[in-house]
Amino acid sequence: MRLITLLTSLILLAGCVTPKTVDERILEIKQMDDYSLCYDVAKDVLTSGWAVDELKSRKVNCMNFKSLIIENRRQEISAGLSALALSDALAGRPAQIRNINNYPLPSYFPDYSLKAQLEDFADKLGAINAQQSGRYPTNNPNPPIANKRTVLGFLLTGRTEISGFNKVCYYDAMGSIYTLNVGSAEICPITQEF
Asked: Which end of the chain is more exposed for a tag (fewer CB within 10 A), N or C?
């Protein structure tokens, strides 16, 4: 009876807690240190975008905290398993063997350092260049196959851009967007095979 009263009181108290406003949560995130932000993102990949945005603005490399985050998460799991064992013992249930290795550890450690941002930007520029010029990057794991099936693309009206001496024509081919480079004085073909 005493346990039920205690649990009921805790539930009522927890129910009275008001959620944080958006501004309070953002302020809390801004006051967190780099390790805590990385820990939250590594532990839960679906962490709010505010934490990720804060890591990006600070240009933090979470890989620097990888071993510490994994060790602390192991300690949390171990404490949880100990609490479960104690709960089983108090309830008179037979002890269950729980292995700490059966529980997932964080595996996502984003790198928002300036070097990583520059490398990502260079990769995107290279991909855009390869797509617009019809070439493929040399590190492409799936190079184009000679007998690859083609799809017919239809010109998207109002969606052409002039870039220097080239005109970029945009095509819709079965829901995918393709581009074709032509001379800036040329007219984009109405249909194009890709």
From this structure: N
Q: How far apart are CA 182 and CA 65, in angstroms?
A: 49
**Concatenated DSSP letters for 103-147?**
S-------B-SHHHHHHHHHHHHHHHHHHHHT---TT-SSPPPTT
- The partner residues of 183 in beta bridges, in order of sequence, read 166
**Strand boundaries in the chain, DSSP class E:** 152-163, 166-173, 176-183, 191-193
Residue-range domain boundaries for the chain: 20-115, 148-193
The per-residue pLDDT for 12 is 61
pLDDT at residue number 96: 82
Here the tokens at position 97 are 């063997």
Identity of the residue numbered 127 = A
pTM: 0.49
* pLDDT > 80? residue 117: no
